[in-house]
Amino acid sequence: MLANFTVTEEQRRAIPVIGDPEPDVLLRLDLFYAAVGVAIEERSGLLISRTLEISDEGIGRVLFTTRRLVVLSKTLRDAHRFGFNTLGKCAKTGTKLVKDAIKSIEAYPDVARA
Amino acid sequence: MLANFTVTEEQRRAIPVIGDPEPDVLLRLDLFYAAVGVAIEERSGLLISRTLEISDEGIGRVLFTTRRLVVLSKTLRDAHRFGFNTLGKCAKTGTKLVKDAIKSIEAYPDVARA
């Protein structure tokens, strides 16, 4: 299961970027950002909404909001090729996103509870 | 063109809500909210990002953000049946959304420019 999150450079280069992203890649991308959302909720104690928009070209945006605050906004490119070289990289990326989100909640505590 | 935005009660009832929403309905929904976004930009002078997420069941969310502020958030239900009884209703709904957005920008001017 976790092994599915790792994609080597060679595997990545082999994925065509024209056409709809593969459903299993989108599922992994969705799961990754769902996990980020849950971690932000646990750390902040706030209810986080997530909105994910991806075009057929693999370009999109994932937004985490709570009340009036944009907690985290991430532009997605190459959704076709979503994955991490190693699981360590996956964990590190997730942790950084959660930290950034917590920072913005701490910067605008009243907006996050508006 | 504009006539496409009106859907009578009878027409609405005739649309099945199971299965993917029709592409032309989604295009109209997209156009409507794009127009709302442009109007918010014109009124506020700020750059507005729009994220639209709709599931196959016609349920979703449209989010308008600028910097750290959620300017407008709208839950979508029955996207399959998107449309207004009259053009007047369409204009009124759009105007109300723009007003709500402007109000939240005025309430959190620093977050909208963070």
UniProtKB/TrEMBL annotation, chains A, B:
Alphabetized Pfam families for the sequence: DUF269
Stored InterPro entries: NifX-assoc_nitrogen_fix
Superkingdom classification of source: Bacteria
Gene3D superfamilies recorded: Protein of unknown function DUF269 (1.10.3100.20)
Keywords: Plasmid
Protein name: NifX-associated protein
NCBIfam families in the cross-refs: NifX-associated nitrogen fixation protein
Lineage: Bacteria, Pseudomonadati, Pseudomonadota, Alphaproteobacteria, Hyphomicrobiales
